[in-house]
């Protein structure tokens, strides 16, 4: 009698990388040049690299702790066991607050974008209804499987990167070294602005809520998960650096003083 053997397909490394990269990269990156205009390019680059290093290793620490618990355990289980019920309550409220704000922001923004898109097609769809429908669609994909999430994230992240380079890629050829090095400003100070950029940099590398999910996706395979975290965060870092290079290499530093108020008005 023939014996049938089946081999389970291991999740691809690419799926985990795009989940991390897609979580990190968002519309907030477009405000990076304005926030970092005081520190300018090289100090901002140093701040980004330093923050990337710290945030990557904090994620690796979460992974190390997570590996000591059963697959599926998340922050509630880990924090309660390691720090006690008091700190677990603080941690739970903090995570719930952050995730609520992010969820609200994405649903609100997607509703507005879809409402505008439907209006261009002469379809009257209220922004609230569009946002609610978008939330249901994403929830359904999350409910299906992590693999479905990774595929959707790959499509969305790919569209983001392609659109970014189609829109701003031509500016790379117009980067002026004199503008990038801020030659026009004599005795300009940059270091005093560096500390102000760090909180924004920290928010630009937030992915840690996905670490327990990746362990559930890959199992207790730290080597693969470490590669996902490393490549995903490097993808975000690379895109941030290109964005700073494009903007700060084309727009003189003093002009950002006028750009910031215009952004607040919109």
Automatic annotation (TrEMBL):
Q: Which InterPro entries match?
A: Amino_acid_transport_2, Trp/try_permease_CS, Trp_tyr_transpt
A GO biological-process term: amino acid transmembrane transport
Can the keyword Transport be found in this entry's annotation?
yes
Instruction: List, in alphabetical order, the Gene Ontology terms for molecular function in this entry.
Output: aromatic amino acid transmembrane transporter activity
Membrane topology, as annotated = Multi-pass membrane protein
Membrane spanning residue stretches:
12-34, 40-65, 86-107, 127-145, 152-170, 190-207, 228-246
Which terms in the GO cellular component ontology are assigned?
Answer: plasma membrane
Where located? Cell inner membrane
Q: What is its main location?
A: membrane
Entry-linked Pfam families: Trp_Tyr_perm
| UniProt keyword annotations, A-Z | Amino-acid transport, Cell inner membrane, Cell membrane, Membrane, Transmembrane, Transmembrane helix, Transport
NCBIfam families membership: PRK10483.1
Family, per entry: Belongs to the amino acid/polyamine transporter 2 family. Mtr/TnaB/TyrP permease subfamily.
- What protein does this entry describe? Tryptophan-specific transport protein
Organism annotation: Klebsiella pneumoniae
